[in-house]
Write a structure and sequence with these properties.
Elements lengths: L4 E10 L6 E11 L4 E6 L5 H8 L7 E6 L2 E2 L5 H7 E4 L13 H11 L5 H11 L16 H13 L5 E5 L7 H18 L2 E5 L3 H7 L2 E6 L2 E7 L2 H4 L5 H16 L1
Parallel strand pairs: 3-8, 3-9, 6-7, 7-8
Antiparallel strand pairs: 1-2, 1-4, 4-5, 9-10
Amino acid sequence: MSVSVEVRDLSIVFGSGPAAVKVLPGVSFSVKPGECFGLVGESGSGKSTVLRCMSLLTDFWKGDVGINGRSVRDIPLIERCRTLQMVFQDPYGSLHPRQSVRTVLNEPLVIHKLDDREERMRCAITDVGLPVSFLDRFPHQLSGGQRQRVAIARALILEPALLLLDEPTSALDVSVQAEILNLLQRLRDERGFTYIMVTHDLAVVDHMCDRFAVMLRGEVTEILPHEAIATNGATHAYARELIGASLEYEGVR
């Protein structure tokens, strides 16, 4: 099942008094059911903070995040975890080093009191292109790409409708990046997920996303279709500069 997402006037302040820093002045965008929506921009522009607010990993923000017209704050925790999941940037840090893959995948099934756990784990691990025997391996026995596949399997095992992807390939080698992106694309085609993806790489946006928002200093400067990358169809100066730099880099590679 796909879901729509509405983010309206999302803002957050870190610190207090004279030292307070407004990281997101008021971010707004919408995502259609089954769409892959990208967030791009320089480091520190607030992209990952948006995902952390949407998932309530950071909860002291103002504004509204709606999933199918329902505020994320009004969705009970158990239901929210079944609706949205997040895949983090670092496959080395997002898995517990002393827990086997089986333990990693079984834990959410136990928490949510789901049955057929062994079958669900087998399906989850094979869906991400790993053999069932990997259930008994530990993170140190896996490559970076394999760890990220396990992290994706962990996110998928509760069958969410919305996946928040925080630079899911940036810590991986280029060849492995392509494998993970193709995996995410296949899963989206098969299951109709709604994706919101943070990335620095406009080539990833061009490959994965239907539309993308360019962020600068916590604000959305422009929202564009992915076709605008090839022709640099942006109108905002920063967005044009960002796309132009990416095209120049791709041209000399």
